[in-house]
Every structure is written in C-alpha cells, then in structure tokens.
Design a protein that fits this description.
Length: 315
C-alpha cells in the first residue's frame, strides 16, 4: 500500500511541476505575444511608423532640430526640438499614437506656437527614428518619458513641463503622470486614451479571433503572465493601465475624446475623468468625431479648449 501511495504522490507532484512549467512557459509566450502581435491588423490601424520625411521637411521650415536621449535601458530615442524665441516659456512634449511617428503631432504645433510654448515632438520607442523595435505598452515608456522630461528641464528655465499625448501617446502620458516623477509635471492633455489595457486587448482580440474560447484560455494563463511581467520588468498590468495611474495623479489633466470613436469608446474618457485624483481636471467630448480626429474636425474648438484649460491652471 505504501508503495502505491508513494507512486501516486510522486505522480501528482510530477504533474504539478509540469503544469507549473507549462504555465510559466505560456505566461512568457503571452508577454511576447502582447509585445509582438500584429496590433495594426487587430486594431485596424494603418502603419505609418516608418514614414518620417514630413518631419524632416517640418524641421527645415520651422527652425527645429533633431535631438536625442538615452532611456534607462540604453535605447536611443529621437525627437524634434522647436523652441519658442520668447523668454521663460513652458515646454510641451508631444506624443503620437500607435504605428505613427512624431510627424503625427505636427498639426498641434500651430496651436502651441500661438500659445508661446517650446515643443518637443518625440518618436516613441519602436516608432519613427527611435530604437527599441516595438512598443511595450508602458513597461518601458514611462522611463522613456522620464528621459525626455529631464532633457526638457535642462532647456526650460521656467521649469514648466507638460505632456500632450494622442491615443497611445495619451495613455503613456497618463501612466507617467501617475508615477512619483510624473507628479512634477505642470499639465497633461490626454486625447483619446484607452483606460484598461486588458479590457482593450480582450475586446479587440475577441473581435479579431471571433472565438470566446480563446479568451478563456488567455484568462487561465493570466497569473503566469503577471508573474512573467513581474520577473522580467518588475511591473504588472496595473502599472500599464491609465485607469489605475490616474488614481495616483495630482497633475492638472484635460481629457479629450470623440463621441463617435469606435476604437476606444468615449465612455473610457468618462471613466478616466471620474477616476482621476487630480484637483484640476476637465473633460471635453467632441460630438460625432472618430478616434483621435478631434483636431481635424475642429481645430478652432480644439485650440480654445486646450488654451482655456492651460489659462485656468495659469500656464
């Protein structure tokens, strides 16, 4: 009897170890899939991340120049510095969306030039001329923004630094604003950010795969996925969620969103606004406007909303 007991005990232990090994392997694969999945196909986004000629042309006529910083993991990041000729000007760092590059933010330069701001248009990691190869959805991007903020402080005597992000850039701006360093920002403009990364991924993967059973499998692996993130990046998905970050942010924040956004429903902006712990926050919804298209739909209204907000917080 004892021999049979030991046999089954050892079998159970072996199966448990195999299950753990398989779980950790699948958790690692889930991380890799998050970082390397064809999100342009899944989300229905046209890939423009390598199309940078417009930025070079803009630098030529604007007097801007290419600058670079090195992030904490050694990745070189590129951007364009467009200083204002006036003294004591604040600086805004402009962050583009997924599969885009810094030329996406060129339309906003007219608004900030009229407001008297220095501007840094950056290529996020894995986009444009920056290194890194891929977006990491916030695992590395807060460190990237930190490097740009440090560069901006050296070139901004007033010490007033803000972020203006669109889509993915908005989400990364919110993530940074919830960090200890991010609390020193003067403002954040969040245009069309998502809220919860897991929710976004599940919604879009279900629409792409068309099979809910695949999502059940992914959910079963989540604990191992979180463990892999913690082991490799010292973060979990909570550190990648703007909806969590805004609960820790005290930075004046303006949330912008279009009510006809089918990629990220406008209700996500309402959730972010409600969850934000900032004592100076505002939400503005653009009626019948699609994802990240608010400027194109009404640049005059967009400029007024942003200008009024920055005026209210005395910048």
């Amino acid at each position: 009897m004892r021999t049979i007991f030991h046999f089954f005990r050892n079998m159970i232990i072996a199966l448990f170890i195999l299950a753990l090994g398989a779980g950790f392997y699948l958790g690692h694969e889930m991380t890799e899939n998050l970082l390397n999945a064809p999100w342009d196909e899944i989300l229905g986004i046209v890939n423009h991340r390598g199309m940078t000629p417009a930025m070079r042309e803009a630098e030529a006529w604007s007097g801007g120049k290419t600058v670079s910083v090195i992030s904490a993991d050694g990745t070189e990041l590129k951007g364009t510095w467009m200083p204002d000729p006036g003294e004591g000007r604040p600086t805004v760092i402009l962050l583009h969306g997924l599969y885009q590059n810094r030329s996406m933010c060129l339309p906003y330069t007219r608004m900030y030039r009229n407001l008297g701001y220095n501007m840094i248009l950056i290529d996020q990691r894995g986009h444009g001329e920056s290194g890194g190869g891929r977006t990491t959805w916030g695992l590395r991007e807060t460190e990237d923004i930190s490097a740009w903020v440090k560069w901006a402080r050296k070139n901004t005597p007033s010490g007033k630094i803000g972020l203006h992000g669109v889509s993915l850039g908005a989400a990364m701006s919110l993530l940074y604003s919830g960090t200890e360093e991010g609390r020193n920002l003067s403002f954040v403009i969040s245009d069309s950010s998502y809220g919860n990364l897991e929710q976004l991924a599940e919604e879009k993967l279900f629409a792409w795969l068309g099979d809910e059973r695949a999502l059940w499998g992914l959910r079963a692996i989540y604990p191992f996925f979180q463990g892999d993130l913690l082991f490799r990046y010292h973060k979990t998905t909570r550190d990648m969620d703007p909806l969590n970050a805004v609960t820790h942010s005290t930075v004046p924040t303006l949330f912008l969103h279009g009510t006809a956004d089918t990629l990220v429903p406008y209700e996500r902006a309402e959730e972010l606004y409600e969850a934000s712990s900032s004592p100076s926050k505002k939400l503005y919804l653009f009626e019948n406007v699609s994802h990240a298209a608010e400027w194109g739909a009404s640049p005059s209204v967009y400029s007024k909303v942003v200008g009024d907000f920055l005026g209210e917080i005395q910048l």
